[in-house]
UniProtKB/TrEMBL annotation:
Organism: Rugosimonospora acidiphila
Domain of life of the source: Bacteria
Official protein name in the record: Endonuclease/exonuclease/phosphatase domain-containing protein
Signal peptide: none
SUPFAM superfamilies: DNase I-like
Length: 270
């Protein structure tokens, strides 16, 4: 008999750099409550630097029974994944240590590569945080662009171990603008599509040092060979919220990227 196709699966994914400085606990308490009510399926967080901060989120965001991070005290890369669906496996790969030497190297930046058992089939989720460009110069010859290129080469090598039959979502703080030549080369080599392609919206809160910031946070997708994957993103968490200590404040110096993912069902025999 012919193939039978079920309804497609629609998922929501959030990526957010949660900012490890300042009033961390008050902001994470507010974030945990917001996430618990928000209805995301998968949440990719960066700059959750310590295990006790991750535990705080896990206690408050109880609608995500599955979570992944690496490290007993300091977390590998400051990376955390929260999920409503089982995380079948997850590993952390660290980026190479390179010059210029900088305090940021203590964060042990890298990538989490997870396989999540979402309805209708598994999904590969990659959560990452690249080194910052302290020169704010994203031209190909800049010293930090060379750092980013090395890190993206490492990310590509890590992603080569992902089951090629899986659709892939790569999310996080790339510290690179959308039109960066380094990022464009990585997208092309990894066959990834930008879920916010064409957008000029920033994902970083303007500062006196960077009054017109670009988008540093991205969601990149790749379908499986026999399953299309569509993605539509929007910027969230721009506005101040009420923090846990009763003061208004922002959740982070970054905005979040909220992405709707649609995966067609796997065809079966009927």
């Amino acid at each position: 008999m012919g193939g039978v196709t079920a309804d497609p699966t629609t998922l929501r994914l959030l990526t957010l750099n949660a900012l490890f400085r300042g009033d961390v606990r008050a902001r994470l308490r507010a974030l945990g409550g917001i996430l618990d009510r928000a209805g995301y399926d998968v949440v990719c967080l960066q700059e959750v630097m310590y295990r006790h901060h991750a535990r705080l989120l896990w206690r408050l965001a109880r609608s995500y029974p599955h979570h992944a991070s690496t490290g007993a005290v300091a977390l590998g890369g400051g990376l955390v994944i929260l999920s409503r669906w089982p995380i079948v496996r997850c590993r952390f790969g660290r980026y190479p240590v390179s010059r210029p030497l900088r305090p940021e190297l203590l964060m042990r930046k890298g990538a989490q590569l997870a396989r999540v058992a979402v309805p209708g089939g598994d999904l590969a989720v990659v959560n990452t945080h690249l080194s910052a460009n302290r020169d704010h110069d994203w031209s190909a010859g800049n010293r930090y662009s060379r750092v980013a290129a090395d890190e993206l080469d490492r990310l590509g090598a890590l992603m080569s171990g992902i089951d090629p039959a899986l659709p892939v979502v790569v999310a996080g703080d790339f510290n690179l603008p959308r039109d960066s030549p380094v990022l464009a080369r990585f997208r092309a080599a990894a066959r990834l599509r930008d879920a916010l392609a064409g957008s000029a919206e920033p994902t970083y809160r303007p500062t006196p040092e960077l009054p017109a910031p670009p988008a540093f946070d991205h969601v990149l997708v790749r379908p499986a060979p026999d399953r299309e994957l569509t993605a539509r993103s929007r910027i969230v968490f721009r506005d101040a919220v009420m923090l846990a200590d009763g003061r208004p404040g922002y959740l982070s110096d970054h905005y979040g990227v909220d992405t709707e993912l649609v995966l067609p069902a796997i065809r079966g025999n009927g």
